[in-house]
Design brief:
There is one protein chain. By secondary structure, the chain is of the alpha/beta class. Helix content is 36%, strand content 26%. The chain contains 13 helices and 14 strands. It has a six-stranded mixed β-sheet, sandwiched between helices. The two termini are 21 Å apart. 37% of the residues are buried. The C terminus is likely disordered. The structure holds adenosine-5'-triphosphate. The site of adenosine-5'-triphosphate (ATP) has 14 residues, from strand 2 and helix 1. One of its GO terms (molecular function) is ATP hydrolysis activity. Belongs to the ABC transporter superfamily. Keywords: ATP-binding, Nucleotide-binding, Transport.
Length: 351
């Protein structure tokens, strides 16, 4: 139903997406998971037809976005990060207005608006002005405007951001009910969101898809390796030669470049439990001082962190903050860069 193939997007000197591919089928909720700035919004805006891709294709129900944008817009519902609402309209009036923009006939509109309000549990506030609604209700109105024309595909950009826990549960349940007969893609930077709502996840980092799988398979895949983080002091060559000499060591990656030859290194090994003791023995024997050796777990949070910090770490040798030293939950829930401001509501966003 939704197919994205080799999508790239360049904004001036910023490459926001590089060769991104994934697909989602009817009845499925696919989570697009990644830290701030990963490229989630860019992907969604291209899919919704609001932004041209630099390369690659995005298609909905067999229609390519750049070839037949009108056909795609009729088949897709899009909730941007900030819903494009008109605060001085009533909920019902606004949904009629959006229905008209989306090409619903005057005869069909009352029934479709009623249906969207029922789906999103908005009947009690249908005559209320939008600016008087709570954030949770405004989010539901945002979802209602995305589904009012009954599209088979829905894309939701961070649909639960800023909601309180009760509202989050309500919106998640609403999304699950919509997915019964539709294809839903939602973006989030929060792992629990995917865990709670999605069957499958595409993890995106620095504009690239670094994993696509069910969460269960993702976990199974990662437990085929053991990962150790070492804090060592010694000649670089001695450390690297020691690592190279061990059969169980698959790869390693320096996490920090620090003075006085003390560094952190992340070592990926095959799952043989003997590799850990062998590592210690070989390094100490080579005259390398070991301050710490930590085996990284395989919780989903750690897997996500591993997948989404790899490249950052590789290229951040000179940065003052070592991402590997951030607490896992902080790095995931409180990424350092700020969110992109969504476009201000305008009539084009409603079309
Ligand atoms: N209009 C633009 N002009 C220039 N660069 C942009 C523009 N929009 C996005 N970018 C850059 O493209 C990259 C991807 O941004 P995007 O908003 O798609 O990420 P995101 O994963 O949705 O992030 P967030 O979770 O913060 O919304 C970032 O580096 C961002 O700064």
């Amino acid at each position: 139903m939704i197919e994205v193939e080799h999508l790239s997007k360049v904004y001036g000197s910023t490459t926001a997406l590089q060769d991104v591919s994934f697909a989602a089928q009817p009845g499925e909720i696919l989570g697009l998971l990644g830290p701030n700035g990963a490229g989630k919004t860019t992907t969604m805006r291209i899919l919704a037809g609001y932004l041209p891709a630099t390369k690659g294709t995005a298609a909905v129900a067999g229609f390519e976005v750049h070839v037949d944008p009108m056909a795609v817009r009729q088949r897709i519902g899009y909730l941007p990060e900030v819903p494009p609402l008109y605060p001085n309209m009533t909920v019902e009036g606004y949904l009629h207005f959006v229905g008209r923009l989306k090409g619903l006939s005057a005869g069909d509109r009352p029934q479709r608006v009623q249906w969207a309000m029922e789906q999103c549990n908005l009947q009690d506030v249908q005559k209320t002005l939008i600016h008087k609604l709570s954030k949770g209700f405004r989010q539901r109105v945002g979802i209602a405007q995305a589904i009012v024309h009954n599209p088979p595909a829905i894309i939701l950009d961070e649909p639960t951001i800023g909601l309180d826990p009760r509202q989050i549960i309500d919106v998640r349940n609403l999304i699950k009910s919509l997915a019964a007969d539709k294809t839903v893609i939602l973006s989030t930077h929060i792992l629990p969101e995917v865990n709670m709502t999605c069957q499958r996840v595409a993890i995106i980092n620095n504009g690239k898809v670094v994993a696509t799988n069910t969460l269960a398979d993702l976990k199974a895949q990662q437990t085929e390796q053991l990962i150790y983080e070492l804090d060592v002091q010694g000649e670089l060559d001695s450390v690297e030669q020691s690592l190279q000499s061990l059969e169980g060591v698959l790869t390693w990656q320096w996490l920090s470049e620090q003075p006085s030859e003390r560094r952190k290194v992340r070592v990926t090994c095959n799952p043989d439990p003997q590799v850990g003791p062998q590592l210690t023995h070989t390094l100490v024997h080579a005259g390398v001082a070991m301050y710490e050796m930590r085996r990284l777990g395989t919780s989903l949070e750690e897997i996500y962190l591993e997948l989404t910090t790899k490249e950052e770490v590789d290229t951040s040798a000179e940065s003052e903050i070592d991402p590997a030293e951030l607490p896992v939950s902080d790095a995931i829930r409180h990424p350092t860069s700020s969110s992109e401001e969504a476009d201000p509501p305008n009539a084009e966003d409603l079309s």
